[in-house]
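Dear H.,

Thanks for agreeing to be a second pair of eyes. The structure we're designing against is below in token form, covering all 152 positions.
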């Protein structure tokens, strides 16, 4: 992503980010006043933002950073940026009730494209179906060749 991501966001993009603030704030366990203090803005600004008022780029950046979102440190190749935009558009088009399920499927499909030698499957249906018969696997990767890391 571009270094000056927040400086280049359109109004619609700022609205999309702002629409996530309330949920992110709740997940962080913060009140509007606490988030406002962290973001060096007013509680009224946070309230307006959560009600759909389009924030200025600088305000949005401070609020998202206070919530632990640091988009400027993430950089993707241009093709990946196009794919992310396409995926985001498709995700937003899915009715919210079904969205999570379909996003999980897409993530699983993308993760299946990673073919590392140090990935070992393990069943996710522990106690249900024995010995990998349910075709429900997750991958465990480690930095060391040969298998998952073990606690020392």
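And this is the sequence the design step returned. I haven't edited it by hand at all.
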């Amino acid at each position: 992503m571009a270094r000056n991501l927040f400086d280049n966001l359109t109004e619609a993009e700022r609205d999309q980010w702002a629409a996530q603030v309330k949920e992110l704030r709740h997940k962080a366990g913060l009140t509007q006043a606490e988030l406002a203090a962290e973001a060096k803005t007013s509680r009224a600004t946070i309230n307006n933002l959560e009600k759909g008022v389009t924030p200025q780029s600088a305000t949005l950046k401070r609020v998202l950073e206070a919530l632990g979102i640091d988009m400027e440190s993430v950089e993707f190749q241009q093709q990946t940026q196009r794919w992310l935009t396409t995926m985001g558009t498709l995700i937003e088009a899915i009715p919210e009730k079904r969205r999570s399920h379909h996003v999980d499927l897409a993530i699983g499909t993308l993760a299946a494209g990673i073919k590392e030698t140090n990935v070992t499957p393990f069943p996710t249906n522990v106690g249900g179906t024995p010995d990998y018969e349910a075709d429900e696997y997750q991958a465990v990767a480690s930095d060391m060749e040969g298998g998952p890391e073990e606690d020392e």
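Two observations from my side: The first strand starts at residue 119 and ends at 123. The two ends are 38 Å apart (CA to CA).

Warmly,
E.
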